[in-house]
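User: structure tokens for this one?
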Amino acid sequence: MSHCKTLLAASIFAGLCLSGALHAQDQTQNTTTNAGVGAITQNQQDTAQTHGANASNASNAKQLATVTVTGIRASLQASMDTKRNADAIVDAITAEDIGKFPATNVAEALAQVPGVTLDRSIPGTQRVSIDGMDPSLNVSLLDGHPVAQAIWLFGDNPNRGFNYSLLPAEILGQLEIIKSPEARIVEGSLGGTVLMHTVQPLDVASGTLSGSFGVNYNDMVGSQRLNGSVFYSWHNSDKTFGVDVSAQHYELFTSREGMENYGYSSVATVNAAAVKAGNNVIQNEINAGLIKPSDQIPNELSAANFQQTEKRNSLLVNLQYRPNQSFESTLSLMYMKDGLNNVNQSMYPWATNQPAGITSLTEGPNGIIVGGSSVGKPCYNTTTCTSTASTFADNYARQSMVTTKGADWKGTYFGDGWRLAADLGVSSSRNPMTSFVKEIYYGGGFNWNIYNGVQFTDPSTANNPNYWADNGWGGNEETILYKARDTYGQLDFSKDFAGFVNEVLVGARYASHWESQVENAFTGPQQLTLNQIGYGGLTNLSGLSDLGLTNSFITHVQTSGLDAIKNAVLSTPGFGQAKDANVYFDNTWAVQQQNSAAYLQANFGNDDVHGNLGIRFVHTQFTSSGYNIPGDCAAADTFDCNFPTGYGWVTSKTSFNNWLPAFNIAWNITQNFILRGAASETVAYAPYNQLAPYFEANDTVLTATGGNPNLKPYRSVNVDASAEWYFNPDSVFAASVFYKDVLNYIVNAATTQTRVNGSWTIPGYLQSEGNAQVAAGLCTAAGICQYDVTAPINGGRAKVKGATLSYQQAFRDSGFGLRANYTYSDGSTRSGGWLPYNSKNAYNIGPYFEKGPYSASVSYNYRSAYLAGGYVAGAPSTYVDGFKELDASAGYQFSKNLSVTLDMLNLLNSKYYAYLGSKTQLSEEYVTGRQFMLEAHFKF
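Assistant:
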């Protein structure tokens, strides 16, 4: 399913009243068996018992009594009890876990769970892997239902992985990670299903008022932002009707600074262009044996600076009606606007763009050219500079505003030993994103190496704005209207029985997800000098200093920001009339997924054993639409095109049927020692854009990515087992093993395709890039170019096998405690390739202290190298080096009504390093700075 990061932030905010970041009082905990499809709350279960429902014994553990959580130790015990009483293999986090351990978002909180790893390519973690699986192969549900999610970053690849980073961590009541499926749980996950639980108005004391206010600060950018939230809940004296309202204003300034490289070219290719231009330096080095024709040269080492200010405002209203013990109804209404404007500057001296200026190359390990130099002549105050050295600075100003709306209704009727539950809902998310770009140019010489970046040979001239200007291409404006919509309905019936089989559940569900994108590019902005665009002074990128990069990368010219870039593009007289047809045709698509499912599940148990057995049937239909354009239309780059049969807007449909059995069993070997086993078959689905017939190209570096409407679902056979020893009331040692045999694993295949360069007819493109591509032999004079294209295919089998160890203990009454976990995951495709986002080793160590009004905790996380996505469209996937993070949290409780917390993340300011093939083949490296969040919490 696709889930909206911003909508969920609003919809779960009601949980803040129970936690206040430090405390969760009188909170109802839901166990695994009453979460997900047809979720039945604790109060509903209590009501069912009064109608003669067969009460479960301790071993069956269908119900978990109301728990009062007042501190770290009690919170960890509540999480442990959820795990202990579950039928499936489950891990849990309660409100205190999230609020008192170092975490500013839900993703950081999930990092405390064994088997969970985070990808930190963008500040504020986005992607969460479970048991070594790609984040897109997990499912996240809010109280049992999906929520639509529009992408927030211009040019980002849509994926099914939920962006937890935009959820404030302290607002959840409880979070469960189900690792072994049950038949009643929504399909779509190979890794794990994350269930996020909220609390309804009738579960909270009437008149509850709570909230928080605080400040976020990042030491790398030296900027702070204010946050605030408030929650109010009321119900009548009979507790038959209640309403709560929550509102939040959230701001966060994030920055990512580093060095990027946009691919590699062979020495042979660059040398051919250099010789053609009359430069024999490279040939002479080849002849002398100093370098080899097969060596790879970095195309562009770029000083990268991404800055974003998020401003989110949300409102949630929950209404709950329980007129008697036989019926309950809940309606949730949500609205949110999330502004995510950002500026991304990439300054890259480009040696391979002008081979005529290369004066030296230096070979390093593994056939990588690690250094070189180029000569050139800077041009003063002109937009028509000609030089043998080229440095470009791309300045992207991106406007992003995600608007999300949702309504969810649940109703449950309790009979005499049976229950009937219904859930209906709709959510929509849209983002009309806009990107403005100005690409300024400098012609002076430079020296470079892959370890430290680029140093201009004349820094004073390079740092003079009078020598920077558009050069041939004046930039453009691109717009993307991205929409996502979920509609769903489900009906669940359960009947209690006396005997070993104590409950039978049956249900049906229909869900439709629509996702679409319409992209336009407006061309022809006038060429301007940097001073005309708006000179913003010199950069002071302290993060690049942390990486040991050159002075020219740390301090160089920049524009004065988003408004300057935007206004420079829009200031052209008559701008907005010329649109690029190829951009529209290649990047406009729509995909609808319709799932119809039915399940049957039997829960069983006695004093020694409990579990469930069931089967789920799923019929899935995909409808994929996009443009198929004849070659002559693409070459002309025109909307005035007559489409023959089979061209134009085309639609294809595919459908699949899957039977998904699931079995879970738990043996109570002793009162405190439990063995579990599980076997299941699961399906998951490719990201929506991969199912669309689209072609997204980067015409500058001649890479592209495409879709494939014929992709089959992922299908996996899974076996899980665990052993858990609860050696005292708040301590546990657990070990688990997992094995996944993925019968269809979708992989990206790289091909070379001859296509028309869609930018060839854009004014100024030939001068700035096209002529260099022709000189390098990559394109013909007519703009027919060789693209490296990556597209998904049905890749055959893959396997994942692994194990986890977890330990949790409070050390008597000292106030000290420890929790730690380790995960081993070995995954590979049939051909032996790495599985995306699978780290072989990962661990977390988290000591804590809590006594009296004081609390403190530390968390150290590590994950080994893994495969991640490429940086630009169609770029090859990158390997991310092992990553470590040290976080800490401290709190003080002034009274039962007031407390403060300080969260400190990334205290080591760890480097995110990605590479191709070998570690000497740089792709990108970043730092994001240390983040501090100081908050005061109140509750009355």
